[in-house]
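ASSEMBLY PREDICTION REQUEST
Request ID: AP-0331
Submitted by: J.K., bench scientist
Number of chains: two
Total residues: 226
Priority: normal
Notes: Please return the full assembly, not individual chains.
Input sequences:
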Amino acid sequence: IAGITQAPTSQILAAGRRMTLRCTQDMRHNAMYWYRQDLGLGLRLIHYSNTAGTTGKGEVPDGYSVSRANTDDFPLTLASAVPSQTSVYFCASSDLPGPTDTQYFGPGTRLTVL
Amino acid sequence: AQSVTQLGSHVSVSEGALVLLRCNYSSSVPPYLFWYVQYPNQGLQLLLKYTTGATLVKGINGFEAEFKKSETSFHLTKPSAHMSDAAEYFCAVSEDDYKLSFGAGTTVTVRA
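STATUS: Completed
Returned structure:
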């Protein structure tokens, strides 16, 4: 069982370019999440999805969009990348979108925007 | 609104010594509390969590944490540090929804 896979592992991107970070889970979890991790700030929620077909905004959604066409995939798109979006991005999932449910994290994507 | 404060961004301990990582939270309702660990170049994994019931929670790898409502704390401890405990540790809180709020993290280094 792979759990959560993310692609690419790392990427260097020119400012203004469009980029999609991929996330796939094989646990049939209902809920999925995107976080960004920045030094000294911990993890901050970008977008989430309670179930396939629904999405919601987290703490820092500006400049990002997501879709949830099916249970397994939850891509994150940067329409026009800016240097402040340089970060490590983690995808996570949980069986149910409940406050006590454990979230399982992918290995992350390190993105540098120049 | 919920938030988490982790005291100390960096903790250095000797192998075999006590590990103590401090976490204080603010929450308008009884919270659910989590500790996650991140090893170098990996994603986060759950160490332990408090939902309801016993306030002393035991987790993986010999870690435990105690929920103290009066002190709004959820400190993480391990009696004897091992080299493999070198990692970054995050405290997190959720309230009545599923959104986790993370602390800034504490990096633990273990000296031989």
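REVIEWER COMMENTS: The longest strand of chain A covers residues 31-38.
SIGN-OFF: pending second reviewer
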